[in-house]
TrEMBL record:
Belongs to the NDK family. GO terms for molecular function: ATP binding; metal ion binding; nucleoside diphosphate kinase activity. Keywords: ATP-binding, Cytoplasm, Kinase, Magnesium, Metal-binding, Nucleotide metabolism, Nucleotide-binding, Phosphoprotein, Transferase. It is found in: Cytoplasm. ATP binds at residues 11, 59, 87, 93, 104, 114. It comes from the Bacteria. Residues 3-140 form the Nucleoside diphosphate kinase-like domain. This is Nucleoside diphosphate kinase. Homotetramer. The lineage of its organism: Bacteria, Pseudomonadati, Pseudomonadota, Gammaproteobacteria, Thiohalorhabdales. It catalyses: a ribonucleoside 5'-diphosphate + ATP = a ribonucleoside 5'-triphosphate + ADP; a 2'-deoxyribonucleoside 5'-diphosphate + ATP = a 2'-deoxyribonucleoside 5'-triphosphate + ADP. GO terms for biological process: CTP biosynthetic process; GTP biosynthetic process; UTP biosynthetic process.
């Protein structure tokens, strides 16, 4: 299996629900290691840029407003098939469709306020990691 890195965001709703530790613990207990981490409050410009791929979607403005509504916890997770593994742990975008036991089934409020973000491909993972972290902030695989 390929060792990969992926970008995770614990969104403002989950930070507000005080479940940062619960979510990180799911990553760790499922073979993902935290290689970089910080808590930040995004500016409007940063949230717009991060979600630029959705700029033409009807939910874009609400998504940006939601993402700037409070602090988020951003991390780089590493492990075998980390991108797919993280998305499996997250569950479906709409928590009503998320499998039982997934992060979104347990902690998301709605399709908008859905607790977590995870990169969806190696290309977006690389872009999203670089969006938040420089190379000195992401620790080596064996560190
Ligand atoms: N989103 C939303 N309404 C929708 C679809 C998506 O508010 O109808 C938000 C939601 O927060 C989602 C994000 O836009 O996590 C990005 O959507 P995407 O389809 O990429 O889902 P994800 O990869 O986060 O599961």
């Amino acid at each position: 299996m390929a060792t990969e890195q992926t970008l995770s965001i614990i969104k403002p709703d989950a930070v507000g629900k005080n479940v940062i530790g619960e979510i990180l613990s799911r990553f760790e207990s499922n073979g993902l290691r935290v290689k970089a981490m910080k808590m930040v409050r995004l500016t409007t410009e940063q949230a717009k840029a991060f979600y630029a791929v959705h700029a033409d979607k009807p939910f874009y403005n609400d998504l940006v407003e939601f993402m700037i509504s409070g602090p988020v916890v951003v991390s780089v997770l590493e492990g075998d098939n980390a991108i797919a593994k993280n998305r499996e742990l997250m569950g479906a975008t709409n928590p009503k469709e998320a499998d039982a036991g997934t992060i979104r089934a347990d902690y998301a409020t709605s399709i908008d306020a859905n607790a977590v973000h995870g990169s969806d491909s190696p290309e977006t993972a690389a872009e999203e990691v670089a969006f938040f972290f420089n190379h000195l902030e992401v620790f080596d695989r064996d560190a």
